[in-house]
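Follow-up to my earlier ticket, as requested here are the two runs.
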Amino acid sequence: MFGNGTLAARSMLAAGLAGIVMLTAAPAMAATATPASHGKPAATGSFKTWKAAQRAAGFRLHAPGKTFGLKRRHPILVGNCLAAGHRSKKDVYAEWDGARKAFIAVDQTNAGSPCSNFGAAKFLGRWRVQGHRAKMYGFCGRRGLPSCTTKNITLVLAWKAGTHFYTMYSNNEWRRTLVAVARSLHRI
């Protein structure tokens, strides 16, 4: 499924986020946003700043304190949760890119569960992230995919923290790097 590395991973992520944003409509949608203090999420779209994305999402977002040289070159996407029963909740996605097709992304939602399915991946273990139990998966170790011991694989780290659910993705990064970025998440 992810035999083509980063391109396939991003295609899968984009497919999961396809209903979130139409980039041409983003400025108009962002302009209609109201403050998060009103208790309701106000808008969907793409946003340049974390504060604007947080206002649109209507819940407290977390950004990484460490990105290990990776840069956020794309807007932060805010959309509706695609999971049945949670369509009124919001899903927020941000990505950091680097050399050698490396990237790390964070997807956070106020639905209390994932808003999409990242697909069939191999379970690689459990980690502790800010006091919560997280599970790591990799697109590796199966026919046509690279070994799970290599760096150039797509990893997924997922955990629940109260009513929020976090899913982090990486490609061409070590497991410990993805976990370190997850542990560095802090409130905006």
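Run two:
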Amino acid sequence: MTAGPDRPSVLVNLLWCVPGAVGGSEEYLVRQLYGLTQQPAPQWNPTVAMAKGLKAAHPSLADRLPIKEAPFSSEHRARRILGESTWLRRLERGAALVHHGGGTAPFTTRRPYVLTLHDLQFLTYPDYFSRLKRAYLSTVIPRSVRRAAVVAVPTEFVRDSVIDEYGADPAAVMVVPNGIEPAVSTDVTPPNVLRGRYDLGSGPIVVYPAVTHPHKNHAFLLKLLAGPWSDPDLRLVLCGGVGAAEGDVAATSDPRVRRIGRVPDADRNGLLAMADAMVFPSRYEGFGAPLVEAMALGAPVVCSDAACIPEVVGDAAVVRPLRLDAWADALVDVRERRDELVTAGHLRAAGFTSEVSGAALAAVYERAVGL
């Protein structure tokens, strides 16, 4: 995106986004910004204030937009909050708009500002959060929502939650969907390489790409393996970082489980592309980007009916309540309907691109400044 003095400037605050530590919300914001640069007639000059290390994690973003990398680490909340009130506040001078991407805004921030709120999971599942973090979010999020010109959310589910919980003006809460990059379908490791690299055998595989956070519900899949999913040739491939529920996975003695941790994007894409199914038993999502990525890669999806998940997949997935009996025949179902589900998945995923996401973000900025 070329600079232009006739286009208003926006400072995007990604200081909260510690590389590899915040799950899908990291990709959500990065892809929106990619999409903003893809608009046919760009109306904004964004500058991105990044947490230390994020530039190295997303070098192509630095090729597209001006980057200001913080001189301090954001791994500790208190240090990041201090940095937002000092270093970031200086950067805000001269910006027509500030965009806070992490669900909270500093009390001293310049206005008007846009607030991206990914979800309200801390209200639905408070036990998944420490007492200190619950207290912080319960205090700062409502204030941030009240003072925001526009609140951007990933789904109608989150939009309704924000309006109902905080009494927000419906006109000031706007959906900016997640977007996937075209490379997700082309940067793919071949199946024969993956079977050897991760000891997958020659049988069917199902893949769950998720950090082992409690709400991701990995234990549900392990119970299925111990019960109705008894095929000895089946492999359950779990990829993603370590979360608070890692012990559920570590405790299993089932030799069919492959816990492979974080893997290169090409391997992750390849695993999805070759899978009998991408399984997604999550209890809560604000969006659930792996759902769209799997559909784009031709993996049939079996998912829960929780939160926003049915909204995201539409009629392009096998959606079941989180009961073992409801999932017992799910793999049989997807094998019988594979062609139908793959076709529907491709069509569904085509509506979730970074360009679409960027256009929605541009509309949010325009609403925020009254254009």
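The only thing I checked on run two: Residues 9-179+353-369 form a domain with the Rossmann fold fold (CATH 3.40.50.2000). Let me know what else you need.
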